[in-house]
Amino acid sequence: MSDVETTLRGPEAYKIASRALELMERHQVWPTALNFELWTHYVADPEGALARELTRLISLGEPMTELVSEELAAAYLPKARLNQQIRDAGDILSKELEAVSKAIQNAQKSNAAFGKELAGASKTLDKTTDVEAIKNLVGGLAEATRRVAKENRSLEARLAESTSEVERLREHLEQVRRDATTDGLTNLANRKAFDEELDRACQEADESGTTICLAVLDIDHFKGFNDTWGHQTGDQVIRYVASVIGRVAAPPRFAARYGGEEFAMIFPRETAKAVSNTLEEIRVEVSSRMLKRRSTNEDLGAITISSGFAERKPGESGHSIMERADAALYASKRGGRNRVTSAETSPASANAA
């Protein structure tokens, strides 16, 4: 999930949406779904590439037609870019398959013609003993063999070329898939990828009869920190916490930025004790470092994180275990923050202030 998309899922979203509608009305832009998405991104990230391009078009007096909106979306909106990349890959693949199909058809025709020529030669040999006629026949067969061999070499080359192109496309689409499931700020998985992985892990656990623990981690007092130091410094803090989490999240563990300053982790086949120890390790490392502001080298002090985790019950849904892990997180917040809480040892109805 991009930073803009994260912002649009937070408490500022309604103000951003209202401001976007005001600007659309001022510039006589119809409030279509696509235009609304463009202009909310414009308001949420006024220094971003999309905002700069919209500002340029407005300054030139360019009308915001449907075509212009579609071009802007294709260039600057992540989902639109992803869809375009997939369509482009599909077009290339279709052309490759068409070229291979033609090459195969040509080879089939040549082989069929060669087969007919061999059959004709066989009949002729049965009927003649004339040496000159046999020489001519052999010469014709030799020429036909060369043609077929050439056609087969051409087909092999085309197949090799197509195999290479398809492999390139596969790698490209794999990169597109990774980009679509990776949080741009932290390089951890995004929420969409996490939700999919949690469903998959729950299904696997039911099939194998194994356990899963789910943890939710949150940076303490982050809003106040952001308000004091600004979003860029806040992003620096989020990246730092993500780097600590990422170091202990080697597969089969799975870590994601769940939204804003919140992270989530899946621990397949691990005991509650092992998960608690890992979360404690993360907590201690995060709080032990004194941070500095990159732009000015000012001391930012230490930050802390709170976390909660739950051990999945047999047959329990991902949504249910997430609710229990959240309740444990809220218990950590309510208990003074900078701590790890297990859902099994905290009240399920715990709420943070």
Automatic annotation (TrEMBL):
SMART domains per the UniProt record, alphabetical: GGDEF (SM00267)
SUPFAM superfamilies in alphabetical order: Nucleotide cyclase (SSF55073)
Keyword Coiled coil listed: yes
Coiled coil: 152-179
One Pfam short name: GGDEF
Region Disordered, residue ranges: 332-353
Enzyme type, top EC level: transferase
Entry-linked PROSITE patterns: GGDEF
Cellular-component GO terms for this entry: plasma membrane
Catalytic activity, as annotated: 2 GTP = 3',3'-c-di-GMP + 2 diphosphate
EC number per UniProt: 2.7.7.65
GO biological process, one term: negative regulation of bacterial-type flagellum-dependent cell motility
Keywords noted in UniProt: Coiled coil
InterPro entries named in the record: Diguanylate_Cyclase, GGDEF_dom, Nucleotide_cyclase, Rev_trsase/Diguanyl_cyclase
MF terms (GO), sorted A to Z: diguanylate cyclase activity
Polar residues biased stretches: 339-353
Record domain GGDEF: where: 210-345
Signal sequence extent: none
Keyword Coiled coil tagged: yes
NCBIfam families: GGDEF
Protein name: diguanylate cyclase
